[in-house]
Every structure is written in C-alpha cells, then in structure tokens.
Amino acid sequence: MLKKSSFRYYVIVILLIYVPINHSLAQIRYSANAEYLIPLGDLKNNYTSGVNAGLGVKYIFNRQYDITFNTGYTYVQGKSVEDDYFIYSVRPIAGVPLGLGFRFKPDNLFFIQASGGPVIVMKPASDFGWHYSGGAGIHYKMLEAQIRLMQWNKPEIANFAGFQLSFVF
Tell me, what CATH number does 146's domain have? Predict the structure, then answer.
C-alpha cells in the first residue's frame, strides 16, 4: 500500500512526463486589463452595464498552454425605474473576483480560456460566492482582446457578457 506522500510523488512525476513542458519557453507575464460587462438573462431587466479593472499573472508552459491568475474590481450599475407613483432604484453589484484559469492557444494569434474561483461580493451586501467564465480572444504583441461569458452565483445568479482589453508586459 502506498503512503500519501509516495502517491503524490508518483502523480507529479506522471504529470511532468505527460504534460508537454518546454522549460526554455516557460515564462511569466503580467497584465493590466479593463472590461465592459453587459448583463444577460433576467439580470438585464435590473442592471444597465458594468466595468471591471484588474491585474493578472500568466505562466506560459509552452506555445499552446498557459495558466492564468486574475483579480480585479467589478462594478455593475443598477437601473432606476420611475412612474407616477414611485421611484425604484436597484442597488449596484460590486465585488472582487479571484480567478484561476487555463488557456489553450491553437496558434500564436488566437486563444480559448476557461477560469473560475471565489468572488468576494461587497455590494449589495457582503457575501462570498463563486464565479465561472469561458471565452476566446486574440493576442497580438503586447495587447489582448477577449470576449467571454461569466456567471456569479452571489448575490444572485448573475450572467454577464464581457469585452476585455489587456496590456501584457
């Protein structure tokens, strides 16, 4: 029977054998990004649009695979509805998503990315939830443009389409 530490050692060795890592290409890149968010589904009835500003770190394994970590501040503006009898304002959603992702690059220009992780919700009330996203984009020199779909499970199920522009250094 294998001990836990021996089992972990064998798993790591097997992963290193089967994951195509070229150490001469392995490198770290940093990014600063801005994103415009459009609420989807039922969320679009109560929210107009949102923005996200963030920072990221990307570890490049080889020409095809990257691992990413991103964080930032997201703010989604609520709508105000007014008629003859009342004024109703939807409180904004604000939070800090922490995302760990995987990126596949079929060539030097295009990429497909999936990420997820915890989100610290600050508005309308302090809470803790999860977010998931998937998208595709273009990387050209020091710029990246990405379109993605994102879902938060707190403060309610919130779906967004995002258009992100990143400066990579």
Answer: 2.40.160.20
